[in-house]
Every structure is written in structure tokens, then in C-alpha cells.
Amino acid sequence: VQLQASGGGLVQAGGSLRLSCAASGRRTFSSYGMGWFRQVPGKEREFVAAINFSGARVYYGDSVKGRFTISRDNAKNTVYLQMNSLKPEDSAVYYCARRAGAILAVATEANGYDYWGQGTQVTVSS
């Protein structure tokens, strides 16, 4: 399984970005939940959002609730993270990850995921 994250960049505070994570490989994308995490140097990886295999269940970290939206298109093997009202503190490397196990509930801990993308940098200027 390979996960390719894209869509990061530099944006002013209050702006928006949409991250994408395309999955490839032999396993059926639609059977696995997906998550987004972020990390800044010197800090632990932080949970951002997760979505279950069907897209019917989503969960957000407290710091992004009401501003970020996770979604998925199983026909395109892609999960998205729409980020609105961005703040400087949202600046980080954002990683997508695949849930470790098919048809499992949403997970907010990094050890609940087994495959990770390479990360995409998001920088929000004040």
C-alpha cells in the first residue's frame, strides 16, 4: 500500500487549503478507515481527523473542529482534508494514514494506523 499526500502549501491566516491522499496497492481502499495527523518539529504527532471505511463516521481533533472537513471518494481511492479558517498554529507537516485493519472503528491514536504517506507541508502566515 502506498499513500501519496498532496495539496500543502503556503497560505495566509483565514485562508483555505484542501489536502488529498491517494492510495494505491492491492488492498481494497474502501475497506479501511483513514486518518490525518500533523506534526511540527519537536512535538508528537497530533491527531487531526479520521473517517471510517464507508465515510459514514468522522471524527475531529478539538483544535480543528468546525474548521476542517474530512471526506473520501472510494471510487478514486482518495481521502481529502478541507481546511478552512486556517491559523498560524495549523502550520505543520500533514500525514495521511490507513487504519490498521479493515472495517474497524475510527481511531485517534497513531498506533491505530499501519501505513503512512510521506507528508505534505502546510504553512499558515499571520
Verbal overview:
The protein is mainly β and 126 residues long. The chain contains no helices and 11 strands. The protein has strands spanning 2-6, 9-12, 17-24, 34-39, 46-51, 58-60, 68-73, 78-83, 92-99, 113-116, 120-125. Strands 2, 4, 5, 6, 9, 10 and 11 form a 7-stranded mixed β-sheet that branches. Strands 1-3-8-7 form a 4-stranded antiparallel β-sheet, with no helix packed on it. Strand 5 (46-51) and strand 6 form a beta hairpin.
The backbone outline, from C-alpha atoms, is: globular
Category from helices, strands and their pairing: mainly beta
Q: What's the number of extended β-strand segments?
A: 11
| Number of helices, counting only DSSP H or I runs of 4 residues or more | 0
Average pLDDT score: 95
Q: Give a short account of the largest sheet.
A: 7 strands, mixed
| Topology as a string of helices (H) and strands (E) | EEEEEEEEEEE
The residue fraction in helices comes out at under 10%
Radius of gyration: 13 Å
Classify the beta-strand content into a percent band. Answer: over 45%
Kindly report how far apart the N and C termini lie.
Answer: 37 Å
List unreliable stretches of 5+ residues: none
